[in-house]
Amino acid sequence: MSRIGKNPVPIPKGVKASVSDGVLVVEGPLGALQQPLHPAVKVAVDQAAGQIVVTRDDDNRVSRAIHGLTRALAANMVEGVTKGYEKKLEIVGVGYLAAIQKNVLQLRVGFANELQVPIPGNLTVTCPDQTHVSVKGIDKQAVGQFAAEVRALRKPEPYKGKGIRYENEHVRRKAGKAVTK
């Protein structure tokens, strides 16, 4: 039995969950999310007990793998519609900066041209100042994917540490050529 999959997902007050036609739908104060379900698992929503229970029919490899995954996705959906998710990015480098114009994140990160990144409609991206970017949303996967795509435009380099990094990310620094003597 999956250690993660066997735990029920608690449903807080103000959140409604339902399963219909192989799709789990979770609605809360911040919005609604839906997730298609794999046929190897069964999801039951018990509103009276306030929990989502994930079970599987057999013990073959795919069923075991999908069991814990489905439970984790359901837990992420419940947390997303109640609290939401946020990733913070930090821009390090002389002359490096970020700005938001309409629905486009503009980045100046040492290239000849300014980078233009369109912001997806289900996310809220803000720039509290020119060297910080905050990505917020209810879908954990969408928040993480957008933050990773922005970071990949200019990863932090190991010699001076310039680039786009997650807040509190430790960048491993290398010594330069002068250290050899």
Task: Compose a concise summary of this entry.
This protein is α+β, with helices and mostly antiparallel strands and 181 residues long. The chain is built from two helices and 13 strands. Strands 11-12-7-13 form a four-stranded antiparallel β-sheet, covered by helices on one side. A three-stranded antiparallel β-sheet has the order 1-6-5. It has a three-stranded antiparallel β-sheet with strand order 2-3-4, covered by helices on one side.
Q: Based on the coordinates given, report the CATH architecture of the largest domain.
A: Alpha-Beta Complex
Radius of gyration: 21 Å
Topology pattern, helix = H, strand = E: EEEEEEHEEEEEEHE
Q: Report the count of strand segments.
A: 13
- Beta-strand portion reads 35-45%
The SS-based structural class is alpha+beta
Can you identify the CATH superfamily of the largest domain?
Ribosomal protein L6
**Mean pLDDT across all residues, rounded?**
93
CATH topology type of the largest domain:
Outer Surface Protein A, domain 3
- What is the CATH class of the largest domain? Alpha Beta
The gross shape turns out to be: elongated
How do the strands line up in the largest sheet?
11-12-7-13
Distance between the termini: 58 Å
